[in-house]
């Protein structure tokens, strides 16, 4: 990654927007339960401190997601001339199998088509163009793949 704002795929944007909405709803619920921590016994005070800590955690994540969405908007759409974050990439593996993969910053649970930029295949694909052959390591040893297409 270059340090410049990186685009994200439409699917990743929707996932982040949904997570943001969920976190904001959770934050409203938690904030509604806070009272004055100096009132009550020690158990009440400890419970209030725990909820305050939870609010801080929620606020940090809300801020992170909001900033990432802002950066993605500044970056514009994923590139279509070279592989980058947010790209959809058609790849043909050495065994002839082809797959369409999404290049992302972070993995999403149970998304088999997502390749992160810090994985061996993700690092190998970044900056490549259709027709390029990439070499990367797998648990079973070295592997190769060919970039077939790039698009949204």
From TrEMBL:
Q: Which residues form a coiled coil?
A: 13-75
Q: Which SUPFAM superfamilies match?
A: FKBP-like
Q: Domain named Transcription elongation factor GreA/GreB C-terminal: which ranges?
A: 79-150
Q: Which GO terms describe its molecular function?
A: DNA binding; RNA polymerase binding; translation elongation factor activity
Q: What top-level branch of life does the organism fall under?
A: Bacteria
What's a Pfam family this protein contains? Answer: GreA_GreB
Protein's UniProt keywords contain Protein biosynthesis = yes
Asked if the Swiss-Prot or TrEMBL record annotates the protein with the keyword Magnesium, the reply is no
A Gene Ontology biological process annotation? DNA-templated transcription elongation
Q: Where are the transmembrane segments?
A: none
Name it.
Transcription elongation factor GreA
Please name the taxonomic classification of the source.
Bacteria, Bacillati, Actinomycetota, Actinomycetes, Kitasatosporales
């Amino acid at each position: 990654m270059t340090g410049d704002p990186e685009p994200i795929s439409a699917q990743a944007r929707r996932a982040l927007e949904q997570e943001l909405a969920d976190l904001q709803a959770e934050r409203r619920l938690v904030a509604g339960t806070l009272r004055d921590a100096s009132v009550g016994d020690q158990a009440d005070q400890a419970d209030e401190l725990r909820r305050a800590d939870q609010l801080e955690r929620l606020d940090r994540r809300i801020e992170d997601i909001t900033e990432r969405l802002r950066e993605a908007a500044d970056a514009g759409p994923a590139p279509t001339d070279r592989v980058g974050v947010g790209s959809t990439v058609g790849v043909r593996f050495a065994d002839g199998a082809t797959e369409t993969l999404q290049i992302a910053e972070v993995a999403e649970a149970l998304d088999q088509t997502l390749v992160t930029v810090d994985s061996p295949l993700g690092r190998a694909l970044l900056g490549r163009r259709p027709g390029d052959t990439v070499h990367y390591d797998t648990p079973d040893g070295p592997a190769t793949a060919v970039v077939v297409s790039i698009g949204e």
